[in-house]
Amino acid sequence: MLFVQDHAHVFSARTVAWVERRVAATRVETGEELVVVTVPRFPGAQASGAVADEAARLFDQEGVAGTLLYVDRDDRRDAVIAQPAAWFDAQHVASIRQAMEARFRRGAYDAGLRAAADDVLAVYRARSATASASVTKAAPRLRLYAWIAAALLAYLVIRGALRRAGA
After folding, report:
1. Which of 11, 28, 34, 129 has the fewest C-beta atoms lying within 10 Å of its C-beta?
2. How does pLDDT run across 28-84, given as a tens digit for each residue?
């Protein structure tokens, strides 16, 4: 899967390659991904919610496992669908969009994409690190329980063998 589908040709090849590498590495680390789709102009984009609806349709159709950034270049509209929603509240999604759109308005499309990609991927890496830390903290307890269970099993086996030998 291409993580950057730049149908509007607004990003440099260097930025596309940079984002592709970063997303691929994050996907291996966390299982989450970022997909960026640009279109020159989405028919009907002037209708209220049309771009967001198209982004939602594309998100489902492509089976995006993470976040979709959808950009309509000519109509200057975009949509961000970030999953899991619990990790991205409305304020966070708004800040991603604002940072990206501010750069896009200045014509700095590469900088806008890099900023948005960094923000989204940082959330996935932070969540992955938090999950790894909680598993690491739980591991010593699990090892202790395993030793206790093994000792109890050994006691029962030995006790049963001694009872059979004495009977």
Report:
1. 28
2. 988 889 999 999 987 776 666 788 898 899 899 988 988 999 998 888 888 888 887
Of 62-76, 120-134, 148-162, least confident by mean pLDDT is 120-134
37-76 burial code (b ≥16 CB/10 A, e <16): bbbeebeeeeeeebbeebbeebbeeeebebbbbbbbbebe
In a domain, 67, yes or no: yes
- Tokens representing 48 are 């209220």
* Contact between 107 and 73 (Cβ < 8 Å): no
Does 153 fall in a domain? no
Which residues is 22 bridged to in the sheet?
A: none
